[in-house]
Amino acid sequence: MRWLNAWWGSMERHPWMWTLAALAPLVLFPQIDLTVASWFYVPARDIFPARSAPFPEWIRKSMPVLLFAVAGIVAVAWLAGEAMRRTFLGVSRRVAAFLLLSLALGPGLVVNVILKDNWGRPRPSTLIEFGGQSTYVRPLMISDQCDDNCSFTSGHGALGFWPLAFALLAPPAWRPIAIAASVAFGAVVGLVRIAQGGHFLSDVAFSAVITIGLILWLYRRLLGDSSKNHRQ
């Protein structure tokens, strides 16, 4: 528990240091992306086997639906509270704004609208190295090899890290465990998409930084560290 508190405290105090440490190697050394992707590709069969495996496919198809359903429940609880003029199911006006804005701005606007549909980065499964016709593009380089819903960044990865917003609302005694569990969940979702040839490691890493960064910024702006704000 103590090491979790120390790790999270370091992330909050030095966000740029952690961001640089996570992303710089992936930008400077493109072979990392290609090497990690190759771990999940079977040349003899010319496939990423996880692309058709039941559990990874369940995560790819069902995880977004489940998380959007959770967002819907948050919205309904907030509206019910507004109608009753009191907090309903613990979802105050500030909490609802925090949860819904972190979803809309991170996985929604930045990742899916601004980046995925405009960056043009081809997915691993479309590369020459993995049986396709496209060439590898570094994560920060705009390309014309993909028209829309492209590889940079990972939409599933961004969604997978969104539960961190709920973890920050956990009671202080449980918050470190909740944070660790939410980050682990996002990492698993990202790993599934990498294993399926849908995204590079760098796609998932950038999605994690974008989503976590926006969540922390919104938390400080809307809720801060005072628990009394959660009831407003």
Automatic annotation (TrEMBL):
Domain Phosphatidic acid phosphatase type 2/haloperoxidase residues, every copy: 99-219
SMART domains: acidPPc
SUPFAM superfamilies: Acid phosphatase/Vanadium-dependent haloperoxidase
InterPro entries, sorted: PAP2/HPO, PAP2/HPO_sf
Residue ranges of the TM segments: 61-83, 95-115, 173-193, 200-219
Keywords noted in UniProt: Membrane, Transmembrane, Transmembrane helix
Pfam family, one: PAP2
Record-given protein name: Phosphatidic acid phosphatase type 2/haloperoxidase domain-containing protein
